[in-house]
Amino acid sequence: MSGIVAAAIATSMLPTLPAVAETGEKYPYTLFAGSSAEGAITVNAGNFCINGNVATNGTIVSSGNMNVNGTKTENAGFDMIYIFDKIDTKYFSGNNVEEHTEDYVLDELNININTPTEVLGEAELTGNININTALKAFEDVTLNGEVKNTNDSVIYSKYGDIVIDSTNVNLNGLVYAPFGSVEVKAMNLNLNNVVIIADSIVLDCPNVNANYSTNAAEFVGTVSEPLDIPVDEWQYMTNENGNGLPDFIENTRNWSKLIDTDGDKLPDCIEQYIGSDAMLPDTDGDGLDDCYEAFVLYTSPTKTDTDENGVNDGDEDFDEDGLTNLEEFLNNTYPYIDDSDNDGLSDGDEVNKYGTDPLVADTDGDGLDDGDEITLGTNPLVQDTDGDGIIDSKEKFQQTYTHKVKNEDCAVTEVIVDMECTGNINKTTSVESVMNTDILCTDVVGLIGEPFEIETTSEFDTATLTFTIDKSKLGETEFANLMFLWYNEEENDFVELENEVKDINYRKTALKNIMEIEEWCKEQFEGKPEYSRRTPRSGIKGIIAAKEGEEETEEQRELGLGKALSNFKQSTIWENYQEGKEQGLSREEIKQEYGMREGEIALVERCERIIEEYDVKKKITGQSIGQVSYTATVQECDEAQAELNKLLDKQKNQQEV
Questions:
Q1: Residue 553 and residue 447: Cα distance in Å, rounded?
Q2: pTM for the structure as a whole
Q3: In sequence order, what are the beta bridge partners of 418?
Q4: Fewer Cβ close by (within 10 Å): the C or N end of the chain?
Q5: What pLDDT is stored for residue 475 in this prediction?
Q6: What is the C-alpha to C-alpha distance for residues 576 and 590, in angstroms, rounded to an integer?
């Protein structure tokens, strides 16, 4: 079997044979173009008059006046009609046929085609041409000179184009190029009684008059024949990528148009190409049909044991899911995927152990995948396992989810979520580090380890969160000095979990930080202006930043903050937030529109409050940021330090007692 075919054709696209129209009807169109392109029928003429119907799967373009005495259908969605056998039976089945086994070129003053002429290649005729029967070429037909197609004759290119370039052209009969174009260029063009069928049609002349041919239409009919395109004829067809497969054959949507004698979904010509028997659906008798072997299993349809390991292809289990290849074929599961419906159960277990559908993740339709039901101990075939009136997906089960922290330098080694909840906690719940991605949480003073975002889609009443700490990575921080912070998105602030348990138990997402108490207290003291909390020590022109070990003055802090704010206002998150506000978007709408995280929104809002405080200060003092210090801040910071010292002394005394 050719690897080219296997790579080029997807089995999922294998079509089924459509119903066809009844026989005895006339072909309804004077002109039909199967192409879906713009200008599939193009008429370059001052006047275009047609008596009959015109249709195309593309559009009709006319440079002059167009008068259609019949229906004009664009973007029709019609199939091309194939009548190869009908033409061959009528004109080329007898002994009186002139055959040419290679390109045929004839240049004579007068050319009369009175005997059906078949050319295995291109046919080019030049002269005064009279065609009184059928002219057929496997590739292009080119007619130069004065052309007459009379007595209901046929000009037929099986796989190529028909090009007529002449001074005077008189056509009467069928012009047929189902895979190519019909192009007629003439000074005088008479389409007396014709039917023209091609992929595309171009008529180029001063005036065009076309009349419908009843005789040609009766001959064509309305029934498209199944195509028989032997491999030795593929050489005449278009193959743009040069892979040996004609474009028409490579497109499996066309396979319904090809003969499939044994009904195995492989057209006869494909079977010929890969070496299987077009008369047998299972050429090698291993229980697998030829199409399944060639394009799903990738085994040889002509060898019972393709890999010669002593095991019949049908008895092998390529994905080791407990189903043989034959059983995969019969169950329509994927032979190279052990869990076809991705529900957590192998195909073999679904079929042989649980009786669930290996192609449906939730067999009983209760909202829980089959694999989750097995994990939780419910019945995947019954929506309400315990019969209490609550479907299994709404029942709550005590479960634990453990997240192992990947960062080896992080003091937090595990985050454990334990709760009675719906669904499979290991699928519904996630813990993710937001270090350096959520600026607000990353920049919290006193942070130990990493901040984490915990999300769940499960329904629950209460949850226990456990952080496993590696004391060896705490440095100088005492284990007893750790606290647990929760970022309250609604209040836009950090709160200590112990004091807020009842308010936040029902929240499904949160940011968790392990904090060092002393550092946090410095930041949390009430009365301290917002802008004086966490500020970078940046050098500002005229002001020297505090050196390590020195206390930072308010002026240094204020000017450093001014530079930080200036830089921040040039950031993308600031610009996106302000743009959203200008558009009148709500806070949630801004998050959705610009893909901003809650922490980023909160950071922008915090900076806005800082700027607002400076605006108030400027109105009072008449001075802007960077010009003077805010002396009240220094006093408040001193008060904060005094209160902190009292707190530490109190804790020390309690420990001694």
A1: 24
A2: 0.63
A3: 400, 464
A4: C
A5: 83
A6: 8
The helix/strand/coil state of 462 is strand
β-strands 65-69, 41-44 pairing = unpaired
Q: Which residue has the tokens 């991605």?
A: 437
Query: Kind and range of the H or E element at 476?
Result: none
In whole angstroms, give the CA distance from residue 265 to residue 577.
57
Whole-number Cα distances in Å, 157 to 99, 137, 148, 237:
15, 5, 17, 11
Nearest to 449 by CA among 485, 503, 392, 410: 410
Per-residue DSSP letters for 557-572?
HHHHHHHHHHHHTTSH
- DSSP annotation of 143 reads E
Question: What backbone phi and psi angles, to 5 degrees, belong to 431?
Answer: -125, 125
Contact present, 565 and 611 (Cβ < 8 Å): yes
Q: Are strands 412-421 and 429-433 parallel, antiparallel or unpaired?
A: unpaired
Compute and round to an integer the Cα radius of gyration of the chain.
41
Q: What is the total residue count of the chain?
A: 657
Low-confidence ranges of the chain (pLDDT < 50): 1-23, 499-513, 515-522, 524-548, 616-641, 644, 647, 657
- Each residue's pLDDT tens digit, 243-291: 889 999 999 999 999 999 999 999 999 999 999 999 999 999 999 999 9
Question: What tokens appear for 594 in the block?
Answer: 């610009």
Per DSSP, the residues of 78-138 read: PPPP--HHHHHHHHSSSS--EEESS-EEEEEEEEEE-S-EEESS-EEEEEEEEESSEEEES
User: If you search the block for the tokens 């009904």, which residue do you land on?
Assistant: 263
Element (H, E) at 556: helix 554-568
Q: What is the pLDDT of residues 285-323, one digit of tens each?
A: 999 999 999 999 999 999 999 999 999 999 999 999 999
Placement of tokens 């929506």 in the chain: 383
pLDDT at position 566:
65
Write the single-letter amino acid at 492: N
Residue 287: CB atoms within 10 A of its CB come to 18
Q: Which two tokens stand for residue 403?
A: 């997240």
The region, left, alpha or beta by phi > 0 then psi within -120 to 50, assigned to residue 167 is alpha
Is residue 216 within 8 A of residue 52, CB to CB? The reply is no
**Structure token pair of residue 502:** 């009842």
Q: Write out pLDDT tens, residues 167-206.
A: 889 999 999 999 999 999 999 888 989 999 999 999 999 9
CA distance 494 to 162: 79
**Mean pLDDT, the chain, integer:** 82
Give yes or no for a contact between 418 and 402, defined as CB atoms under 8 angstroms apart.
Answer: no
